């Protein structure tokens, strides 16, 4: 199968502060990094599982990495929730 994009890149604006969250990853392995997760972890997990980012038979994306710009108690709790 030929891929039209060399990488997965999806931007999402979520939460009351309208934070930008990103999925960045490999379209072959479907492994992604979640960049600056915030607010609605359930939404992020649903987006990764539904995978409407690329056309690869709607296979779920695998969260392999979580990248954050800061390490606060709130961010650490979100990372723990994503890792479950």
Short description:
25% of the residues lie in helices and 30% in strands.
What's the topology here?
Layout: E1 8-14, E2 19-25, E3 31-35, H1 41-50, E4 62-67, H2 73-83
Parallel strand pairs: 3-4
Antiparallel strand pairs: 1-2, 2-3
Q: How would you describe the overall organization of this protein?
A:
The chain is α+β, with helices and mostly antiparallel strands. It is 25% helix and 30% strand. The chain has one domain. A 4-stranded mixed β-sheet has the order 1-2-3-4, covered by helices on one side. 17% of the residues are buried. The model has no long low-confidence stretch (mean pLDDT 77). It is globular and about 35 Å long. A hairpin with a 5-residue loop joins strand 2 and strand 3. The protein contains 2 helices and 4 strands.
Strand content: 25-35%
Tally the structural domains. Answer: 1
State the end-to-end distance: 32 Å
Q: Quickly count the helices.
A: 2
**How would you write the strand order of the largest sheet?**
1-2-3-4
General shape: globular
Please give the radius of gyration in angstroms: 13 Å
What low-confidence regions span 5 or more consecutive residues with pLDDT below 50?
Answer: none
Instruction: Sketch the major β-sheet.
Output: 4 strands, mixed
- Mean pLDDT across all amino acids: 77
Structural class: alpha+beta
Order of helices and strands: EEEHEH
**How many strand units?**
4
* Helix fraction by DSSP (H/I, runs of at least 4): 25-40%
């Amino acid at each position: 199968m030929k891929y039209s994009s060399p990488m997965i890149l999806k931007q999402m604006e979520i939460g009351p502060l309208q934070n930008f969250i990103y999925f960045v990853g490999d379209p072959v392995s479907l492994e992604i990094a979640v960049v600056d997760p915030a607010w609605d972890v359930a939404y992020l997990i649903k987006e990764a599982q539904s995978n409407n980012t690329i056309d690869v038979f709607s296979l779920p994306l695998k969260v392999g990495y979580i990248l954050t710009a800061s390490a606060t108690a709130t961010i650490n709790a979100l990372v723990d929730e994503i890792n479950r």
